[in-house]
Design goal:
Number of strands: 17
Helix content: 25-40%
Shape: globular
Largest sheet: 6 strands, antiparallel
Order of helices and strands: HHEEEHHEEEHEEEEEEEEEEE
Amino acid sequence: MGVFSGLEGSLEKYVDSFFKDNFGGRVQPIDIAKKLAREMRDCRRVSISNIYVPNQYTVFLNPADCENIVTFSSMLAKELGEYVTKKAAEKKYTLTGPPSVKFEQEQVLPAGGLRVTSEFSEAPPEKDTTPDEKPIEHTQRFRPVKEYTRAEATSPACSSLQVNNGPDQGEVFQLKAASIVLGRHEDCDIVLNDSSVSRRHARLELHRGRYTIVDLGSTNGTMVNGIRIGTKVLGAGDTVTLGITTCTFKVE
């Protein structure tokens, strides 16, 4: 069977034609599926015996495009959730909970634009359990064994975020991990005391010695050098703005 068993049947007849008619062929369900698969791959976390992937996905569309699918968004989201399950099984990934896909509007996206973010519903287990054991509950943030070790070896020397404006002005946050979540929630790696910052606002990902900042569907958006971004590779001296908090990305 194909990628979407449901779309090949009852949904395919009107969903694909709907996207072609209303989006000029620019956005198709298969395009969304590819984005979900890419997000799953990019956000995987490797433990000793498992590869964990996010189970909660948000698909951002231009407001007009989002309104156009409102009548069948629940059905499409269900089909995409089934695809996530099948893709994870195919790649031998472990989902950290039941998959979910939701659609949200993003003003800055052009007509036909598409962006996907993801989250783990809970931190992946740090210890495998036998069938007779219950999963061990913990509050520590998951750090993948292989990826974290590799990242430390290739991380830029003395990378940091220096807060220039906002409630945390004067703070300097050293960047050493492979994945760093910034936000207002106390469980974030970098906690900002700014009410205009979302609970989980953005994430810094280290790849080949360079940090990339990824907006996590924040309410007020993430800006780099005054431009709202979805994903952006950072360079020394770049200005990062979250809410009313402005930081300088430094590499020394």
